[in-house]
């Protein structure tokens, strides 16, 4: 069986100052193999992101593995790793790895749709030594599981696994979660953002070093038989830098009763006329009930056009209220949560969920400080809601992050 390999060394010509041709999107494909396998331009990026969290949202871990030019000065492709515990202790760092290798085995049809393995690794002075510093993931051909290994001594060491829920495995489940058209894979023109793995459970047994001055601390998820755990995955890529198409974003994944929701909503920059964009998935049990590729302000008009849609509104504390309704970021956007509404004309149904920020996670500026400062913030989230017509009022939890960039 043949294997295709993409190897990039950030110190050895991996970054191109000029444009790099992307490999095309493939319908009904996992599209896990890099779209820029030999070089990547200075404005392009590719992302493989994974999350795991407990039934109450914490403990939780988020891992974002990038191929882009942002780590050139640090000599490595960057990986963002964030962890949080139920007592609100947290750990977060950007790690840099000189080399990124992704291999994809061929499937029965000869396409690179078999087992996919990705490794972000640093090389020491004597050559490649994977035991020194690496993060590795392996994804099964049918997307039934992803196994993670963290080996960064002095920072993070351990293992994590994401696995499809019972009843959601096999070819039918895989096909249901994959975008069938290029439009369905795009957040906005030229920006691809997909959620290929559907509903997942998670296990994690990871040791972090120096957790807020508290020494080493273990993060355990899904190891207790009496507690549920959840996971998710993102695959994205583009030749456009983020400020080219957005100045505000919210990403969340949550479990609310029988529902799993996963969403990225952006507000466009002036370059795209401040247009809202979104990609969102809503599962009930193991059935995908809404697959939205359009963000709207009023769902009634779009419902008539026969396409799944999502609406996202921010929640703010009521001025003068004696009881604050949630926590907010340390930046100019002081929302305390979001309203997320899904609408599916195929199902002739609407679902409404309210999320509130419960525990602060990460907080980093993206602009100069001040009352109009921008930043990125993460939280453990609480959720409430369900099917509107049935009056469902399930409670749940998850994780979320928002970003503002100081561009018009």
From TrEMBL:
<protein>
    <submittedName>
        <fullName>Uncharacterized protein</fullName>
    </submittedName>
</protein>
<dbReference type="Pfam" id="PF24137">
    <property type="entry name" value="DA_N"/>
</dbReference>
<feature type="domain" description="Diels-Alderase C-terminal">
    <location>
        <begin position="241"/>
        <end position="405"/>
    </location>
</feature>
<feature type="domain" description="Diels-Alderase N-terminal">
    <location>
        <begin position="3"/>
        <end position="237"/>
    </location>
</feature>
<comment type="similarity">
    <text>Belongs to the Diels-Alderase family.</text>
</comment>
<dbReference type="Pfam" id="PF22903">
    <property type="entry name" value="DA_C"/>
</dbReference>
<dbReference type="InterPro" id="IPR054499">
    <property type="entry name" value="DA_C"/>
</dbReference>
<dbReference type="InterPro" id="IPR056402">
    <property type="entry name" value="DA_N"/>
</dbReference>
<keyword id="KW-0413">Isomerase</keyword>
<dbReference type="GO" id="GO:0016853">
    <property type="term" value="F:isomerase activity"/>
</dbReference>
């Amino acid at each position: 069986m043949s294997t295709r390999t993409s190897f990039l060394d950030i110190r050895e010509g991996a970054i191109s100052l000029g444009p790099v041709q992307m490999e095309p999107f493939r319908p009904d494909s996992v599209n896990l193999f890099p779209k820029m396998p030999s070089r990547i331009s200075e404005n392009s990026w590719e992302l493989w992101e994974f999350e795991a969290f407990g039934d109450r949202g914490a403990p939780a871990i988020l891992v974002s593995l990038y191929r882009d030019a942002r780590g050139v000065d640090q000599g490595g492709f960057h990986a963002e790793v964030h962890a949080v515990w139920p007592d609100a202790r947290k750990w977060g760092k950007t790690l840099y790895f000189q080399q990124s290798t992704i291999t994809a085995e061929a499937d029965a049809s000869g396409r690179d749709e078999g087992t996919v393995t990705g490794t972000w690794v640093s090389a020491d002075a004597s050559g490649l030594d994977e035991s020194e510093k690496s993060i590795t993931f392996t994804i099964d051909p049918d997307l039934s599981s992803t196994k993670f290994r963290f080996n960064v001594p002095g920072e993070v060491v351990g293992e994590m696994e994401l696995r499809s829920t019972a009843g959601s495995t096999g070819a039918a489940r895989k096909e249901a979660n994959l975008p069938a058209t290029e439009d369905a894979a795009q957040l906005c023109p030229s920006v691809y953002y997909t959620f290929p793995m559907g509903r997942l459970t998670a296990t994690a047994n990871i040791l972090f070093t120096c957790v807020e001055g508290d020494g080493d601390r273990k993060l355990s998820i899904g190891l207790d038989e009496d507690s549920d755990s959840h996971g998710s995955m993102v695959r994205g890529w583009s030749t456009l830098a983020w400020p080219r198409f957005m100045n505000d974003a919210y990403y969340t994944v949550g479990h609310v009763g029988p529902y799993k929701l996963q969403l990225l909503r952006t507000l466009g920059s002036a370059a795209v006329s401040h247009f809202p964009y979104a990609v969102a998935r809503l599962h009930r049990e193991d059935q995908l009930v809404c697959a939205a590729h359009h963000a709207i302000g009023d769902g009634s008009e779009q419902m008539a056009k026969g396409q799944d849609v999502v609406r996202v509104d921010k929640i703010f504390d009521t001025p003068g209220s004696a009881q604050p309704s949630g926590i907010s970021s340390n930046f100019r956007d002081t929302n305390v949560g979001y309203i997320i509404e899904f609408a599916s004309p195929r199902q002739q149904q609407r679902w409404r969920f309210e999320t509130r920020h419960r525990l602060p996670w990460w907080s980093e500026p993206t602009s100069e400080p001040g009352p109009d400062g921008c930043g990125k913030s993460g939280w453990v989230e609480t959720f409430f809601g369900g099917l509107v017509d049935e009056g469902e009022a399930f409670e749940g939890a998850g994780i979320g992050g928002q970003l503002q960039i100081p561009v018009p």
